[in-house]
Amino acid sequence: MRTQFTASGGAHSCCSAVSSSSCCCISTAAADRRLNALVRHLGIEDSKSAMADISANPTSASNGDSVFAHVVRAPEDPILGVTVAYNKDPSPNKLNLGVGAYRTEEGKPLVLNVVRQAEQQLVNDPSRVKEYLPIVGLAEFNKLSAKLILGSDNPAIQENRVTTVQGLSGTGSLRVGGEFLARHYHERTIYIPQPTWGNHPKVFTLSGLSVKTYRYYDPATRGLNFQGLLEDLGSAPSGAIVLLHACAHNPTGVDPTLEQWEHIRKLVRSKALLPFFDSAYQGFASGSLDADAQSVRIFAADGGECLVAQSYAKNMGLYGERVGALSIVCKTADVASRVESQLKLVIRPMYSNPPIHGASIVATILKDRNLYNEWTIELKAMADRIISMRQQLFDALKTRGTPGDWSHIIKQIGMFTFTGLNSDQVAFMTKEYHIYMTSDGRISMAGLSSRTVPHLADAIHAAVTRLG
Amino acid sequence: MAFRSAMLSKVVSRSSVSCSRCMSSWWGSVEPAPKDPILGVTEAFLADPSPDKVNVGVGAYRDDNGKPVVLECVREAERRIAGSLNMEYLPMGGSIKMVEETLKLAYGENSDFIKDKRIAAVQSLSGTGACRLFADFQKRFRPDSQIYIPVPTWANHHNIWRDAQVPQRTFHYYHPESRGLDFAGLMDDIKNAPNGSFFLLHACAHNPTGVDPSEEQWREISYQFKVKGHFAFFDMAYQGFASGDPERDAKSIRIFLEDGHHIGIAQSYAKNMGLYGQRVGCLSVLCEDEKQAIAVKSQLQQLARPMYSNPPLHGAVIVSTVLGDPELKNLWLKEVKGMADRIIGMRTALRENLEKLGSPISWEHITNQIGMFCYSGLTPEQVDQLTNEFHIYMTRNGRISMAGVTTGNVGYLANAIHEVTKSA
User: Fold this and answer.
1) Does a structural domain hold residue A11?
2) Do A202 and B70 touch (CB under 8 A)?
3) Known catalytic residue: B26?
4) Backbone phi, psi, residue A165, to 5°
């Protein structure tokens, strides 16, 4: 009698074995093939006795449990899992407002013209090779990236006080920064805003830091809980690390004003907190690279130290190429140099050196005046389309008389809107209207078009009126 | 905008919490880190103005003119790709197509393990990334385990498992007297290790020694692993590059698979497809069944997500384009063989040159060893002499990257080696 072989232990219905390692009853074709291969190898004629031989041998590797037999399946990533579910849905009206990747009015991914041009330049250059980059990455790319975020007139850059390493997009840059801090910084706690990008806590925990939160979003106003933020950062221990979203806060789209940023800067410096910026949307939020970098720049110009993780995933549409940078602004050039040497020790055992392709594209664009200018125009167009979607959605809800104040849709900035919808309402919208978004009510405006706004507005209206 | 910046800078400088008066850096106590022993060699080489300089340091292939090579099959793949890819995120586990092709190389074109979906596999940041992911996975799911690492090994192996916080032990591997394998020592260490230990094995073309077990020795190692219930993790960075034949270079792995081991493999396309800087590789773990493979893969992804979210696209598409097109794949196989043959030719030439010079030492090991590296047996002092007097750059363990040897410099190299060793 053959029954399914399981690895979970316990009594088996097929025999009296009490553990999987002594059960000899195997039913699947796969297991048969395995055994047959072994039989051939051992030169045993009679497969029945072979099975007995093998299973009786406690040191046989074939019947032994895998050393990873106890590993359970991990839950789907909440953000990336949305796209998985969306892909499974056969409805023609389905709408993916989950992951934050830009889409055109036609709902298509966009590769920027400047990126295509840079690609062509690279592929047509016969002198290009694929040698390893240095551990810190492409030098040209690093310099240009630092200037992009800190400003080309930044005094720290001019004084060689900034060390920049190429990273694996924003995620990789945050991780390298986190690991560096866990090893070399005297405070092991990082304060992250509530809420924040779902991957932040994991990145910093695995880096070796302990994660605490500070108040950020106010559900009542769907805006910034500025008082709460100041209180929480004010009561953080001196020297604690603070994660700040440079602009276009993910997932809420709620940013401090410039005046509020200055207030935050004063508080951070007075408490000697260490700012760690995550800049994933420079240029993408307002359409202006400089405006979106102001928060970082006021810190980077005040003589103090800070860390900045940059990503080119969204603003250059280079998502899958994993291009980013980590800059650490230090007090002195000597310190910056020593810090760089330690960053290399973090990187080398992680992936040795970063990938060339994406960084080469970025460097090609940033150093060419024409390509750079063209890029700023394409960037503004993406930002403008998103701002237009915000307006259209707001107007559509107003037209329908949807109960509630929806002005946060046009007040929030960047790729995401924190709608304020609860998880029941979200589930309803998915089930009835085939709208896919994360259960925290975050929608990616980049996934909307003029054509699909009405459908979304209908869904929100229904969810609010039926499950309000 | 200018007005606003001017206003802000006034605010900042007048502010009593401007940091320009803060006393010290947070990083005042950060020590300068030691230079990477391998990559530091190339840095020094580049800085040397001598016209005679020779770089036999880092393991990147060079043609007979000493120039880096981009394979024809890769150039063609790139031409096809350029302009056509959108750059969307890959899944956390990377390019499925690329992983499929990569598993075929390691496990066999018609492997039952692939058919039965028993392999948990994810695209990785080349070989380094694959080793690191596995080390992190080992730490998380076998927290009491250690890793046994051969002596010597690629220096970064130690860093990888250390940063993953997996304790390390070593096992005998290289036999300095014979410049070959310390098989007895190796087998003793396998037998004496506690049952169920984790071992790091180089599938072929051991780095840095170039010393590989023979097929018979691999069978004995596999048998002993069965007896002890050890876990074998293979680092295969040179498949195709060692003998010129990828199938042959995978022999050690195939032996273990035949014997029923559930192994792990780190594969890299850095050398055999010349994709060094693209960072393309694959980590695979053979599981009991499909269900377990799904579970293990999902956990590997959980480790990748907080490290880099998902792996880079371009290199993966190059690989799947080359391996997915029979014509390009054949071209690749030819080109890999070409690289391996050139290296084998240089080994012969170097040995012959040294013998012709009347060296008192045996240089048999140069042609016995295999792959990119030759463990010359030179002492650190002799290496320093080679560098200082002859502008020859190699790592201080005496490892010579044969890929850096050309018909143009082999005579010079042999002569220099002879000079520093003739009175040894």
Assistant:
1) no
2) no
3) no
4) -125, 140
